[in-house]
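Course assignment 3, question 2. Fill in each field.
Student: A.L.
Task: Predict the tertiary structure for the chain below.
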Amino acid sequence: MADLALLASGRDADVFALDESRVLRHYRQGGDTAPEAQVMAYVAAAGYPVPAVYAADGPDLVLERLDGETLFDALLAERVAVGTAADLLADLHDRLHRLPARRGVEPTDRVLHLDLHPQNVMVTSRGPVVIDWRNAAEGPADLDVAMTALIFAEVAVSPDAQLADFARAGLDAFQRRAEPPRASQLRNALGMRQVNPTLSVAEKAALDHAAALVHTRAG
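Answer field:
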């Protein structure tokens, strides 16, 4: 990959340009991308907006190269208003959670992204496209909502004042639009974040503070 142009780098993966229409997403710590590709194919077949998947091999995915920018970048540059972004995120949750789980035994189980926040939504010429399905799973829809709210809250308690202000506004706007998750699902989301290997010690130490910002309902 030394001869490929690096387009983006996240907590656990790098994205390289292959050509004008394809990118290579490489997970630095290895792993099997086949499950991620299968989930993406499933939701794509139902009309949900994801990049086309061309190949999955070990830690590598060959994906459609998207135009545009992340919703996060659009927010920071004030090309998208916080309320508009919250509407978009709530709608993406609703659309995803209309899809029945592929393997779930409970009738209420749904496909969950579990990392659906502004950095994982691309604003493209064909509309919003959801990326990074590494954490996708199946379960109750409000676990997904709780996870998005918790990730917003994590940034809201971060030491970066500008990002914290954006995140607090984003959290408030998102929670006004999305059905509040049950308290039990916020606890589940919190437990998942506490064992997430991509979070730093300082970030994990702030999780309880972040969770206290998330509004829940009984359950």
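Instructor remarks: The mean pLDDT is 95. The CA atoms of residues 138 and 176 lie 25 Å apart.
Grade: pending
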